[in-house]
Amino acid sequence: MADTIAPLAARLEDDMRAALRAGEKQRLGVVRRARAAIKNAEIAAREPLDDAAVERVLRGIVKQHRESIEQFEAAGRADRAADERAEMAILEEYLPAQLDADAIEPVVREVVAELGATGPKDMGAVMKATMARLGGAADGATVSGVVRAALGA
After folding, report:
1. Which helix (H) or strand (E) holds 72?
2. How far is residue 46 from each of residues 3, 6, 20, 104, measured CA to CA in Å?
3. Using CA atoms, how far apart are residues 60 and 76, in angstroms rounded to an integer?
4. What is the pLDDT of residues 33-91, one digit of tens each?
5. Domains (ranges, CATH) in the chain?
C-alpha cells in the first residue's frame, strides 16, 4: 500500500507518527486533521490522490484557516487567531512557497496582453488564464488583487 500513496501524503503520515512519539500535540492534531481531509477527498474521488491533489486539499485547509483568522480578529479573539496562525504555519510547511504580488505581476501583464484585456469586464478571463499558468504557486486572493490593479478595476 505504501507504493500507491503520494509522497506528500506519506510525509504527512511519517510526520504524524513523529509528532505522536515526540508528544507534539498541536502538530499531531493538525496533521491528523489534514490526513482525514485527504482521506475524505480520496473517498470522494474513489481513488488515491496524487501529490497535486493532496496539495489542493492542503491549500483548501490553509484557506479555511485564513478565513478563521479574519473572523477571530474581527471578533477580538487574538488568542484564537494566534492558534489558527500556528496551525496554518504547520500546514504551509507541506506546500511550496507562494509567489508574492511582485512575482505575479509580470505573468498578469503577459496574460492581459495576450488576451487583449482592457477593463474590469475581462477580469474572469484574465484570472482563469493567470491561475492556469501559475498553478498552485500563487494564492487566488493575491492574484485577484494584481489582476484588479492591472485592469484598473
Report:
1. helix 51-74
2. 17, 15, 29, 35
3. 24
4. 999 999 999 999 999 988 888 988 999 999 999 999 999 999 999 999 999 999 999 99
5. 7-92 (1.10.1510.10), 101-151 (1.10.10.410)
